[in-house]
Amino acid sequence: MLRTRFTEEFGIEHPIVQGGMQWVGRAPLVAAVANAGGLGFITALTQPTPDDLRTEIARCRELTDRPFGVNLTILPAISPPPYAEYRQAIIDSGVPIVETAGSNPVEHLKHFHAHGIKVIHKCTSVRYAVKAEQLGVDAVSIDGFECAGHPGEDDIPGLVLIPQAADALTIPVLASGGFADARGLVAALALGADGINMGTRFMATVESGIHQNVKDRLVDAGERDTQLIFRQLRNTARVADNAVSREVVQRLEEGAAFADIRELVAGARGRKVYETGDLDLGIWTAGMVQGLIRDIPTCAELIDRITREAAEIIQGRLAAVTAQPAAAAS
């Protein structure tokens, strides 16, 4: 068993987290991760209303008696969701852990802490992570450039970003972006992290509620099969390579404004990809780590494999590297 500051402080068996994923983070997946000893997050804004979120949390509790959390992603919008109401639904439901992402979480932090809720904030740079610690978050998930979704605008990969964050922070650090197996977990621990946060890898599991075609594509795809969209808009997002994402990249390179591509990138179209399995219906999120995904296990099989093989690497290969050489024969 691998014990870290994160597992100790958050009451989790294994240092493996399934982070929030829009249209993916639902009760069956989250409960499966929790039952396997990891930490899963329901994605709040996947639920149409705060009351729907309450129902989803209750459904998750019917499937597991282990700790799980809720992701609340805070993004600027002309007509923003009722964040305060979603926050209250989380508090009322007695959820012990929240993952925040996007904008500064300070408005929500005091409310969560007042009810004993621990907060993990996702960051894409060390400077944002340091600010988050100063605000009082309980842990930071640091996203390298390899990650799915929004990697920020600095383009710093995890191999550099993770140890910098570990050096700069005193709170637990989760390594995010590019993690799928035991080798990644051992590397993250060696770089100073206290665990790993996986998204794309958990999409390709039995309990993930997305269409089988999407899961099969994640298995078949390589590390180069993603696109970076919205670069010109300073809102970079890494998504799966498909006809739509390629068109978005091309049109923005030709000078299109966001209004010109709004319909192409509509969230409703991406949701239908997950529901129908039509991989070219819209934009959908995937990380470079899909190049390391080669099967579709249950969450229990995946987490057991990662932790077991990580221990074998630490006790076997790495121990052998540090072993004293045998004395020369006389």
CATH evolutionary superfamily of the domain at 5-211: Aldolase class I
Shape: globular
Distance between the termini: 41 Å
Strand count: 10
At the first level of CATH, what is the class of the domain at 5-211?
Alpha Beta
Count of DSSP H/I helices? 14
CATH architecture of the domain at 5-211: Alpha-Beta Barrel
- Secondary-structure element string: HEHEHEHEHEHEHEHEHHEEHHHH
Backbone structural class: alpha/beta
Instruction: Characterize the main sheet.
Output: 8 strands, parallel, barrel
What spatial order of strands do you see in the largest sheet? 1-2-3-4-5-6-7-8
Determine the oligomeric state from the structure.
Answer: single chain
State which percent range the strand residues make up.
Answer: 5-15%
As for the CATH topology of the domain at 5-211, it is: TIM Barrel
> What's the pLDDT, averaged over the residues?
96
Low-confidence stretches: none
Which bin fits the share of residues in helices? 40-55%
Radius of gyration from CA coordinates: 20 Å
